[in-house]
Design goal:
homotetramer, alpha+beta, Urate Oxidase, eight-stranded antiparallel beta sheet, two-stranded antiparallel sheet, 11 strands
């Protein structure tokens, strides 16, 4: 049996780019972590070390900085500009994926900022024909201190968990949502609204399982945002265990909790709009 | 020459405590990371393994949870309650230090919260006689996109740094401020105001060096908050280097920056109110 | 257009399990991080919160510990036992994936150990019919201080990288290799040999690109280990830049380097044995 | 009351330096993380932004790289060269502290290496008169699977911990040892031997408390290494809790453990040679 090269890609990961827009009345800051990944006719470098088809990862980094000179705009648009460039100008490159994380800064004064939690993300893929755009959030940490139950589950000989009709539900949301099209969307508006619906659905849902909350979050986004085709969520269940204080002759009416690190539940799922375009390379 | 036991302490680090206060109109959440450290007559356990004088670290953890049952209040007060307890009730323990980090949650709804950046801290020490209280913040990340210069520095044969009259100044503030007394202070109000002065001084100061900014931050706090005796600051200089785009026939008028990870400058200093009480065990 | 539930799975991540085997002449320690993920008929919990088909993640954790009571053996076998159990005994569960990381401890004495670097991994998937087994390593950090070149690459207007015929090549290997079958393999022997071939190929290959090294590593494993069908590698290019000392009237003949954090190249690829069985759920 | 500048220092943290020594028969690699901190007449930069006395942190970084051109040798000697340079050549600088972490690489072949766990450290301080040298290790993770007891401890109303005569004892050693003098020591030999004594004492000591083990480790080093004056240890108690399997009708004879993350005990102490020179600035 022969041995052959399989799927492969390469790129520059985590190019840290900060852009300052110096308006007279205020500065604006855009703080990004950009990762590029390219695929195409790359057998030669793998098999013989012939790099004639390899656009160096250093060049990819340079391109990120050079393109930022013209302004960034929404990260979805910036990622699409980069992805198109790599495929359209490098003969050997047939697919590009650009992933961007954007960190949040809140204005304190004219040119002063304080960093907030919450990361906005995008992953844009281009194959020479179609651009697919995924937007999202990462490490959005939320908690409900009540309104969460968990009971009626399947029990086997290894089940010891007590059923509960009141627990803390906390998670660090990673969500990625796929756009119907790559054109005609106000990316900033879409992102703000989708994120808001995620948080509202988390807060509003009386939860019988984190799965139910996950579905409610994805569904809420799709119901309100027609430009979106699918939402994928990854929700760690950040367990908060009530502390048994009875040895100290104290009760604990849902007030004192131990916040555990590991292990944690991990609930992953997607919610899809039927009839939406196929994902293509969106989740490649 | 004989070999002997020197300074020592022991305790339980990073007890993760979340308390929920269930008011009819809203829940409140207090999210803490509590570390206790005790010192005293502990030679026996070191030399012979006789643990008669050792209050287990597991007990220290239990005490944190049990005390939380009665409510937490400001972290400075909670830490003082714990420190006093350990020294006053354990014959062998003569000094206790309690360090608490408090994470920030912003209300979204009645019982729903989203986690914010920024950590409030306290370190309270008690030696059977005096309580010393230090409050602070950690990982408060701030940035000025202009208003920072650095020139006129000492040059030797290894100096290549260009002088600049306009750079980005960014740092992750760790600040600790020592209170004049352990009584009579509205801890929450004091903390909010001190933090606000730190941020304002960072934003307002036209900076010729990060040291100047550091001093301005500490001084601002002491000028406005009479209850405070000293401010200690540790400020990493999170370098943002302008990217040289000239190879691409582009200029870069202070717009495109590379945010570097390592190395980083590290500026540490304290600002002190003359005549304030001696720090005692504050920084022990 | 209707909205529907898409792909989903759930489980308990990062159950930290240490097992001690107490032989008279020596103890042995097995230190694992176990993550389970289950999929099946789980629409009800997502749509209505009806958990009748949900085996709690807490039960999955309990099962990991209970199964460890009978001994662990090779992590591939332990993962397969767990995966089969979840699917075969839970009516609603049709697919299970068990991922295990094993940390390395070197014996110092009869019952004393020191932790080494290097993580052994496995991912085993079972769908009620077939078991697929992937073994691997993670965070295996290697460096060649010479024998690496990079030149002849594609240049565009954003290319500034100098060509080099001598550079440091360093990476943190993540490799996953798929087994031809789930039976009849001495997992420990196979893992030791595959890892050794990876390291040897890294060291032996005079490299014209990290892609060439990647391919050589995968190919070497497949040439020597007939039980393996495919090797997937993810290799960050941990850049070491020679420091320009000319401003200090010093040369730098490949001796003094700056080890950069970010950005970094990221080279990903697979090497496949033609005619091997289809991967099925191996990379699910 | 007046407000004044208190203690302060500044420097460049975490300069990542790799040096390759290219011998015909083999290469050698030295992988360091160097942090410098300077103090002296620095009031002007804090109070007015006059930087005439400030040697830029960028220059400190350059100096680290330039000095590496001449070879590094033992990290204690390299740190001392740097500390002396900063104080002896910069009029305003009166104290320098250089902290170095050295990462461990094991040879695989002539110019190929694999990274091991374990970090060697040094902190060298110079004030224009005396050099003090501290050597150490960090993140040396060790475990005894038996030979550890904990009982006879002080009990109060919050004590629930069961006494045990057999537990796992695991820790990540941070140790720093102070040398009697800054001259005449074979640093590499001294470090290897001291580390070996630490590990042997951990393994050999039948432990009634982690404090007893800590003291035994420090004492062992001082008894065997006359060049050392003091050992400081910080030992997190990495708890391994036996899992209660009784609900599954299984016993657990000390075989199956949960490795907890937080909270953890933290035991800190020093062992001192009576009559040794005063520490001076060693722990500054």
């Amino acid at each position: 049996m022969e041995i052959r090269l399989g799927d492969n890609q390469y790129g520059k990961a985590e190019t840290r780019l900060v852009r300052v827009d110096r308006h007279p009345d205020r500065h604006e800051v855009t703080d990004l972590n950009v990762s590029t990944a390219l695929a195409g006719d790359l057998a030669a470098t793998h098999l013989t070390g012939d790099n004639a088809g390899v656009l160096p990862t250093d060049t990819q980094k340079n391109t990120v900085y050079a393109f930022a000179r013209d302004g960034i705009g929404a990260i979805e648009a910036f990622a699409a500009r980069l992805a198109r460039h790599f495929v359209d100008t490098t003969p050997t490159i047939h697919r590009a994926r650009v992933r961007i994380e954007q960190y949040s800064w809140e204005r304190v004064a004219h040119h002063s900022f304080i960093r907030n939690s919450g990361t906005r993300t995008t992953t844009v893929t281009y194959d020479g024909a179609a651009v697919t755009v995924v937007s999202g959030v990462d490490d959005l940490v939320v908690m409900n201190t009540t309104g969460s139950e968990f009971h009626g589950f399947h029990k086997d000989r290894y089940t010891t968990l007590a059923e509960t009709d009141d627990r803390i539900l906390a998670t660090a949301v990673r969500a990625d949502w796929r756009h119907m099209t790559a054109e005609g969307t106000d990316w900033n508006d879409s992102h703000r609204e989708a994120t808001s619906h995620l948080v509202d659905a988390f807060a509003d849902t009386h939860s019988l399982s984190l799965q139910q909350t996950l579905h409610a979050m994805g569904e809420r986004v799709l119901r309100h945002r027609e430009e979106l085709a699918e939402v994928r969520l990854s929700l760690p269940n950040k367990h908060h265990f009530p502390v048994d204080l009875s040895a100290f002759e104290l009760d604990n009416p849902g007030e004192v909790f131990f916040a555990a690190d590991r292990p944690y539940g991990l609930i992953e799922g997607s919610v899809v709009r039927d009839g939406a375009p196929e994902p293509g390379l969106a989740w490649w």
